[in-house]
Here is the input.
Amino acid sequence: MVRKILWGLMALTPVALIARFVLHLDPTTLFILSALALIPLAWLIGEATEHAAEHTGPGIGGFLNASFGNAPELIIALFAVADGLPGVVRGSLTGSVVSNILLVLGAAMIAGGDGKVDTRSLRWQLVSVFGAVVLLLVVSIPSWNGGSRERHNLFLLSIPISLILLAAYVVITVRNLRIHRATERAEPAEHAWTLRKSIVLLCGATLATALVSETLVHSLEHFGHAVGLNEFFIAVVIVAIVGNAAEHGGAIVIAKGGNTTLATEIAITSSMQVAVFVVPAVCLLSWIVGRGLPLSFRAIEIATMAAAALFATIVVWDGRSRRWEGFLLIGVYGLAVVAYYFA
Here is the structure.
């Protein structure tokens, strides 16, 4: 019954788009419609990924989910760059890294309960997040000194940092895929969709998620002002959670089905991809769609990304997922949200 309802809710996607582009409804209504439309799309991405993982194994399945789930974030970030909102872009990217590691991983652990996690892959990826944070300090620290350097200089400094991060992403991805390909057995169950059908639905759901997410972000500023939230908080919390809707829904659905290995892989891989791929990609593409975006993150953004990676490393170190650890991660995320509010 629930599956039928979710399939029926797919109709909310064209409804939200028609409401914006044809009916031109008010931003608050668009925000609500878009948020509701993302729920079934997130479920579909999770469902298609789980079926794809029947053929590829959980490691590669997690990589597919994170890749398709992060596509909307890249698109949203470029739209924000084009609108001249660099603070919103950096805030949303920070929030994405932090919410994936703490909120998505924590929710998946709560939903899945006791289970296994692939420490070989997860430890390596969390170390990569730490490394990305260290590299971002090279650009961020000069920006904390009261603007001692101009924006253009910070952008020029960001270019080599971005190239290093992209090179690291290629190395990490190739290494992880080789590990999973060599060690995971892919024996699909009888009920599993074909790999082709899974990939087609993943592509379609990702495209729809990108369109709906852009519509939601378009209405976020008005919604934030209506409820009295500042631009930074909207970006680092609301935009990040919306952009990660696919990972949130997918990881929880998969964990609830008992596949904690795939669910935790989705959360950590998605965070690593944002830190090591989406962040430098947005920087390098920013000069095409608008002014160059320097990777000059706030001190609180750097601190929370590092803290999130640290706590996640602690809970996955023993190779087990436990429900109380999920509550711990969500509690830490709650503290980060409070810090963002006062920042």
In short: The two ends are 44 Å apart (CA to CA).
